């Protein structure tokens, strides 16, 4: 039995190393304490010390990262971390790297969110003069802070995430005597532009075991942790719980999409607050001497992708006057200059010219011939136009070959995608304030009108002909809205929050907040899986409910041990392990703890037996 424990230890040592690598910390842990089984269930902590618990889930408390240098080091580590997603081919990566950083970070980003740890529960008894045996009055800890994403109108790129990638919510307050509950941890909001899509980049937890099992670091070393061996006789049984199912929208849909200003969605919820001893009072136990520690927060990486939500996309060759047009029809102040590629990332502008409603225009960087194959910057942005309802092509009337420019852009759109080429299309011939331009482009105007293309002649700089252009854009949008009303029974989401929608958003948020608070307390013990390693006779139990339970339990209390035995029995873990043939002396790992199995597991633990275990541990 002792040997088994030793083996398990050496195994854990390597696994802790792997986990630490994942969580970016140096591998440190206390040496193993010699222990004997005595036919009882005992436990040993696999942690590095107080406050720096690294569980198999890879949870890392916020305090663990202190210095800036350390954080920087971690970010670098995460860069190499393989999240198991599809790898980008090297050629594509190179291609992407050759474009300016501003462009690269415009529409994709990676962030790390950490929810707050729950506050600890308290063990306390009421003490007052003339009130003998006042009963328990230890309060519960507050829940940890949640992490939310909020769509924010003023933003139109993800480049702010070049400077900040970590978002941490605060810890919940600890419970106190006199039944005082701890305060909930402060939430954190990640502000993203409207049109952002968020997906999980890869969870630091679960994957760790499987990843290493595939022969990762530390595999196969003599006496070390041989994950390679694990795969050989790994048997996995999953007990699908009849739980209440996935909670957050992210779990249900696999991704989050924020399309309205002010829309808020839950990224990860905070840790549950530990219960104080008052919560454990029952008719048979009036003096509960146990409490829970707060549940650790979660830490996850997310990938953000932005697809701009604009009604109208302004496209055209470089230097045609697209940004000038945007500035003349909205309050936007894009950079305008007489050289190509002044605009590197799309600019958004809201046009209020019609008074009763607003239209969002996007000024897209100039397109060159071959844009669909990645020439210039066009390709990076053409897909954003796919969400626009109408495209406006600006043609430089002063260009040597305006007709050629027209065809070049049309061809690029057609080659890029069918969605783009079939969008309603309006042409604006620009710079008519320059003498002769109106006359020189007469042929082009006739040609386009002959082709059935709606054509305007404008001077973006002199703000001439801009209003009729906006009006015809609006009439196309109106046609769209009517079609949508027909197919969606009257509801049109124009991407902007009108008063009723704001009320809806507030109600939605209230509901989501309730759900998130509830999620922190939800437990489904029947949802766990077992993994067995024959060589070291070790059973790994994986399941969020169990792992959190073990982490939250304050093992210094005898009653906590009794409660743990009850949970093992009631949840079905005891039966499942027995059915799989677990033997006395086998090791059971749950989260950061390891236990030695005993056939007496389903019986009550007497106080004397418990004292023996505690003495041994010391
Ligand atoms: N005369 C005249 N010049 C104009 C007009 N519109 C734009 N320009 C000039 O054309 C040049 C290019 O204008 P921008 O608005 O930066 O062109 P753009 O299409 O956004 O160019 P990129 O962002 O580089 O693709 C600037 O020097 C403008 O002053 C116009 O109506 N008349
Ligand atoms: Mg521009």
From TrEMBL:
Cofactor annotation: Mg(2+)
Residue ranges occupied by any Obg domain in the UniProt entry: 103-309
Gene3D superfamilies: GTP-binding protein OBG, C-terminal domain, GTP1/OBG domain, P-loop containing nucleotide triphosphate hydrolases
Matches recorded under CDD domains: Obg (cd01898)
Residue ranges, compositional bias (Acidic residues): 76-89
A single GO BP: ribosome biogenesis
Segments of skewed composition (Basic and acidic residues): 66-75
Region spans: Disordered: 44-95
Family: Belongs to the TRAFAC class OBG-HflX-like GTPase superfamily. OBG GTPase family.
NCBIfam families: Obg_CgtA_exten (TIGR03595), PRK12299.1 (NF008956)
Name of the protein in question: GTP-binding protein Obg/CgtA
Originating organism: Chloropicon roscoffensis
């Amino acid at each position: 039995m002792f040997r088994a424990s030793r083996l398990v230890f050496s195994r854990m040592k390597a696994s802790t190393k792997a986990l630490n690598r994942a969580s970016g910390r140096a591998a440190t842990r206390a040496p193993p304490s010699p222990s004997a089984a005595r036919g009882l269930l005992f436990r040993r902590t696999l942690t590095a010390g107080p406050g720096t618990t690294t569980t198999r889930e890879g949870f890392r408390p916020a305090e663990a990262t202190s210095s800036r240098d350390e954080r920087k080091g971690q970010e670098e580590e995460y860069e190499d971390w393989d999240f198991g997603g599809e790898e980008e081919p090297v050629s594509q990566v190179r291609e992407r790297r050759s474009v300016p950083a501003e462009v690269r970070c415009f529409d994709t980003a990676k962030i790390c969110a950490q929810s707050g740890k729950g506050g600890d529960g308290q063990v306390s008894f009421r003490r007052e003069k003339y009130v003998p045996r006042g009963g328990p009055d230890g309060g519960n800890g507050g829940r940890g802070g949640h992490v939310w994403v909020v769509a924010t109108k003023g933003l139109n790129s993800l480049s702010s995430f070049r400077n900040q990638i970590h978002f941490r919510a605060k810890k919940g307050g600890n419970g106190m005597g006199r039944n005082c509950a701890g305060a909930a941890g402060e939430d954190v909001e990640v502000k993203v532009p409207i049109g952002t899509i968020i997906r999980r980049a890869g969870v630091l937890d679960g994957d760790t075991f499987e990843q290493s099992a595939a022969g990762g670091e530390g595999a196969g070393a003599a006496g070390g942790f041989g994950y390679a061996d694990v795969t050989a006789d790994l048997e996995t049984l999953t007990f699908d719980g009849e739980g209440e199912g996935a909670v957050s929208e992210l779990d249900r849909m696999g991704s989050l999409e924020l399309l309205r200003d002010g829309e808020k969605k839950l990224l990860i919820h905070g840790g549950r607050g530990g219960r104080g001893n008052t919560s454990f009072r029952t008719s048979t136990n009036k003096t509960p001497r146990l409490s829970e520690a707060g549940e650790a927060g979660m830490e996850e990486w997310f990938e953000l992708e932005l697809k701009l939500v604009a009604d109208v996309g302004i496209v055209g060759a470089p230097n045609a006057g697209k940004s000038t047009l945007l500035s003349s029809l909205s309050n936007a102040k894009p950079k305008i200059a007489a050289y190509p590629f002044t605009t590197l990332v799309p600019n958004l502008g809201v046009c209020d010219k019609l008074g009763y409603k607003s239209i969002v225009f996007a000024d897209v960087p100039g397109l060159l011939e071959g844009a669909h194959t990645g020439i210039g910057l066009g390709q990076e942005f053409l897909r954003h136009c796919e969400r626009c309802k109408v495209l406006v092509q600006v043609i430089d009337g002063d260009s040597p070959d305006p007709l050629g420019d027209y065809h070049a852009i049309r061809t690029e759109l057609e080659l890029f995608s069918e969605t783009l080429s079939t969008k309603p299309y309006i042409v604006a011939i620009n710079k008519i304030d320059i003498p002769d331009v109106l006359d020189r482009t007469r042929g082009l105007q006739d040609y386009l009108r002959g082709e059935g293309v709606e054509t305007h002649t404008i001077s973006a700089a002199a703000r001439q002909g801009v209003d009729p252009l906006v009006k015809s854009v609006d009439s196309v949008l109106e046609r769209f809205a009517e079609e949508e009303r027909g197919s969606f029974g009257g509801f049109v989401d124009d991407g902007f929050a009108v008063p009723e929608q704001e009320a809806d958003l507030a109600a939605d948020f209230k509901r989501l907040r309730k759900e998130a608070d509830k999620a922190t307390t939800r437990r489904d013990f029947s949802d766990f899986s077992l993994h067995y390693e024959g060589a070291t006779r070790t059973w790994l139990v994986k399941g969020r409910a169990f792992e959190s339970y073990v982490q939250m339990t304050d093992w210094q209390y005898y009653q906590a041990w009794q409660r743990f035995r009850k949970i093992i029995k009631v949840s079905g873990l005891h039966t499942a392990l027995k059915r799989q043939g677990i033997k006395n002396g086998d090791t059971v790992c749950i989260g950061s703890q390891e236990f030695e199995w005993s056939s007496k597991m389903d019986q009550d633990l007497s106080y004397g037996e418990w004292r023996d275990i505690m003495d041994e541990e010391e």
